[in-house]
Amino acid sequence: MSKEEEKTDVYASLGKDRKRFLSWQWKTIIVTMIGYALFYFVRKNMSVAMPGITAEYGITNKSFGWIIFAGSLVYGFSRFINGYTVDKYKGRLVMSLGLLLCAVSNFFFGAGANLSTMITGTYNGPDFINMFILIMGVTIILNQFFQGMGYPPCARILPHWIHPSQLATKMSVWNCSHSVGAALAVVVCGAIMGSLGTDMSNHPEVVKAITANLTNNDVADAATKALSYAAHYGAWKWCFWVPACLALAGAVFLFTCLRDEPKEVGLPDLPGTKLKVTESKNPKAKAKFEKVMVWTNRWVWTFCIANLFVYIVRMSILDWGPKFLTEASGLDIAKAAWTTAGFEIAGIIGTLSWGYITDHVFKGKGHHTCVVCMLGAAIFMAIFFAMVTMHVNNLLYISIVLMCAGFCIYGPQALIGIELGNQATKEASARANGIAGILGYLGSGLSGLIVGYVADAYGWAAVFGTMIVVALIGMLVLISMWKAPRDGYARANSIDYDSED
C-alpha cells in the first residue's frame, strides 16, 4: 500500500491486523446477509400464498389486511424490544434463535387449515373459516415477533465492523439481503403454487367452490383461474413448509459462523469510532448518552418518521403485488410472482447504487439521497396510477414501471437504517433502529389496512393514487433535515459524561 493510500485508508492504523480485520468484516457482512435473507424467506412467502388461500377458503382482502396490520405492529415493537435485548445478550444468539422460532411458526401456519378442522370438527363453513382466520392471525403475529429478532442484531453488529465513512456503501451491499430473500421467496413460492398440491380440477364441487370464492372477491376471469387453483389444491401450505426447512438450517449456520465484535476474535476495535461514554466511570453515563443520541436527537426522530411513509409505499407493493397482478391485471400466479420479484431485483440494484451515490456524491449524507429517492418513487407511482386507470395490462410495461419504483423506494429503505447507525453511533444504533422499526412497521400495518379497504371500496387505481401522496409526504419530512451532519460521533464525544446533571 502506498503512502497516499495509507492516508485515505481508514483501516491503516490497524497495522498487521488490517488484513485479518477486513477478512472478518466481509465474513460478518456475508453471514448476516445470508441469515437475514432467510428471515425474509419465512416472511414474504405469505404474499404468494394469499391468492391460493382466497381461492380455497374465500378469505377477503380486509381479513388479510387486519392480519398484516396486527403482525406489522408486533414486528415493529419486537424490533424495538430486541434493540435492547442485543445489548444484554449476544446478537448471534438472538438472531439464530429468532430464525429458528420463525421456522416453527411457519410449520404451524402451513398446518392452519388442518388445525382448524381438528378444533371445529369440520372442513368448511363459518366456524371453520373463523377459526382458520384466528389461527392465521396468531401464527402470523408470533412469526412477526420472532422476525423482530433479525434486524436489531445486524444493526448493532455491523457498525462495530464497518467505518462510518464506508457504512452507506458496505451496508447497502448488506441491505440487498432482504431483497434477495424476498425475491427468492416469491419466485420459489410462485413455483410451488404452480407445481405442488393435489390436482382437484376433475372435481366439479371443488372447482365450483373456488369459482364462487374468486367471484365473491372480484377476481378477474374467475372461472379460468379456478381451474388453475384446483389443479394445485393445497399448494399454499408448501409455501410455508419449504421455507421453514431452509430457516432451520440457517439458524444453525448463524450460530456457528457469526461473531458480534472484533474483540471476540482477538482483533482491535474499529478505528475512529472510540466513544468517551465507554470510558466514563459515571453509572449514569450510558443513560445520558442514550438520552442525547436517541431520545432527544432531532435527526433520529426525523429519519424514524420518514420511515413510516417509506414502508407504506414499499409494503403496499411487496405484500399486495401478487394479489393485484392476478386479480386486476389478469396475470397467472407464476408471472405475478416473477413480476413482484423484479421489483425486489430492481431494489437490489437501487440499494447498491444509492449507497455508492451517498458516499461518493453526497459525501455520506444519506438524507440528501433519500429526498431524491422519494421524489422518484412518487413519479413512478404516478405513471403506474395512469396505467391502471387506462387499463394497460402489458406485462413488460408493468414490470418496467414497478422495477423503476423499486429502484427508488429501496434507496431510503436501506439508507434510513444506515443513517441511524451513523447519527446514533454504533453504541445506540440498535435502539435508534428499534424506534424506526416501530414507525416503519406501523407504516407496514397501515399499508395492509389502506390497501385492503381502498382496493375493496374504490379499486386498485385508488390504491396507487394514495401511494403518490404518501411518497410526497415522506419526501417533505426528509427535506426538513437537509442541513444535518453526516454522523453523530462529534456530538456523542461532546457530552460531559462525568457531570451529575
Describe the structure in brief.
The chain has 501 residues and is mainly alpha-helical.
Q: Could you describe the 3D structure shown?
A:
It is a single chain. Helices cover 76% and strands 0% of the residues. The protein has 501 residues and is mostly helical. The protein has one domain (20-197, 234-258, 277-493): MFS general substrate transporter like domains (Growth Hormone, Chain: A), CATH 1.20.1250. The protein is globular and about 75 Å long. Mean pLDDT is 81; it is low at 1-7.
Broad CATH class: Mainly Alpha
Helix/strand order: HHHHHHHHHHHHHHHHHHHH
Span from first to last CA?
Answer: 48 Å
CATH superfamily name? MFS general substrate transporter like domains
What is the number of helical segments per DSSP (H or I, 4+ residues)?
A: 20
What fraction of residues sit in β-strands?
Answer: under 5%
Largest sheet: none
Q: What percent of residues adopt helix (DSSP H or I)?
A: over 70%
Low-confidence segments, given as residue ranges, are 1-7
Using only CA atoms, what is the Rg?
A: 23 Å
Q: In total, how many domains does the architecture comprise?
A: 1
Q: Per the principal axes of the C-alpha atoms, what is the gross shape?
A: globular
Structural class: mainly alpha
User: Which oligomeric form is depicted?
Assistant: single chain
- CATH third-tier fold name: Growth Hormone, Chain: A
Mean of residue pLDDT?
Answer: 81
Number of E-state strands = 0
Name the CATH architecture.
Answer: Up-down Bundle
